[in-house]
Amino acid sequence: MSRIVLASKKATQEIAQKIARKLLNEKREHAILIALQGELGAGKTTFVQSFLKACGVRRRITSPTFLIMRRYPLVHEYYSDVYHLDLYRITFSRELDVFKLPAIFENRHNIILMEWADKIKDIVPDFAHWIALLHGTHENERVISFQFDI
């Protein structure tokens, strides 16, 4: 497992963009699925914003806390859509049935980033890339952990 101490918000943004660039260069049989977990205010939304920027999304990116899911079309040779989910308000995975997530997960032209993914572990596919973000020992410090190469 990789564990990196991030000294600033800028460092969080840089690691998110590095992970995005690496994953965007891989073709797969299913979607790219980033499952984020961590404490409130640990940098999940900052990570998503920077990841999406690296994907070419130019519009303002806010967390879809009340919408649950927001789709961003992409201009990319392989990937066509990014889905950003904020599951903070979700209690049971069945609350998401209306979004037809299994079809979104299996479409190899999709990228999905889910904040608070640990709330729906029962439906997160095995191919998901789990990323944990935690508060560090200093005010702006964060710790990121993941189990894949970048």
TrEMBL record:
Principal subcellular localisation of the protein: cytoplasm
Classification via InterPro entries: P-loop_NTPase (IPR027417), T6A_TsaE (IPR003442)
Gene Ontology cellular component terms for the protein in this record: cytoplasm
Pfam families assigned to the protein according to its UniProt record, in alphabetical order: TsaE
GO biological process: tRNA threonylcarbamoyladenosine modification
Keyword ATP-binding: yes
The keyword Glycoprotein is assigned to this record: no
Localization: Cytoplasm
Keywords from the UniProt entry: ATP-binding, Cytoplasm, Magnesium, Metal-binding, Nucleotide-binding, Transferase, tRNA processing
One Gene Ontology MF term: transferase activity
Similarity field: Belongs to the TsaE family.
Protein name as it appears in the record: tRNA threonylcarbamoyladenosine biosynthesis protein TsaE
Organism expressing this protein natively: Candidatus Harrisonbacteria bacterium RIFCSPLOWO2_01_FULL_40_28
